[in-house]
Amino acid sequence: MAAGRKLIQLARTGVNFIFYYSTPFLQSTGAITNTFLISMIFTIVNVFSTPISFYTVEKWGRRTILLYGALGMLICQFLVAIIGVTVGFNKTHTVSSPGVEDIQIADNISAVNAQIAFIAIFIFFFASTWGPGAWIVIGEIFPLPIRSRGVGLSTASNWLWNTIIAVITPYMVGTNRGNLKSSVFFVWGGLCTCALVYTYFLVPETKGLSLEQVDKMMEETTPRTSAGWKPTTTFASQRAAEKTATV
After folding, report:
1. Nearest-angstrom CA–CA distance, 165 and 167
2. Which CATH code is given to the segment(s) 2-205?
3. Maximum distance among all Cα pairs of the chain, rounded to whole angstroms
4. pLDDT, tens digit (0-9, with 9 covering 90-100), for 156-192
5. CATH code 1.20.1250.20 region(s) in the chain
6. Is 228 exposed, middle or buried (0-12, 13-18, 19+ CB in 10 A)?
7. What are phi and psi of 107, to 5 degrees?
8. What is the torsional sign of CA 77, 79, 83, 85?
9. What is this structure's pTM?
10. Minimal CA–CA distance to 61: which of 192, 209, 230?
């Protein structure tokens, strides 16, 4: 059950920050004029990227899309952070006008646009892999006797971490508190790296297997070699054999 809960925790980290706080965060940087429009673009990317997983999850498998999704997300997050602390969000100057409140303008508009693009690409990777993929894996990896409790605890874990992120984020990026600005993406990139390592070592491939076959696969192989495992019997044949043995 800990595996399922951990998977959900890693899946939600980073993207919730963007969807919950992108508007005030982008506004606080002083580099974006129409923050609401940018947030709408992020949402549209999320909506139209999700259906891609309907095909890829069965074509390439759960483990594969989670691995490549985590890799894509961590690259995007670190790029956003590095660009931001060097020439992007974090580098602004004040423009003063008589009778008008001072405003912050980005020193390098092209760098800011690049950050926005990489955030959108990050959302694409999340929505087409980890967004639906984590829930699929959680519905399949628990043994039959505890599946309902495992999925329930995983869902509770998801909302617990949603709450934690919602509470701590203002302290991390608030201008009068942590004021991390683009540096906060180093945190999300680090957690995406944890997601990649976690998936490589602990998430099995369940594509094309029944729930009973998943249980058998977990007994006979490891997550790293699970993609090559093939069932030798069906659940129906096992039940028939058990009845024959009983008779």
Report:
1. 5
2. 1.20.1250.20
3. 95
4. 888 888 888 888 888 888 777 777 888 889 989 998 8
5. 2-205
6. exposed
7. -70, -35
8. positive
9. 0.86
10. 209
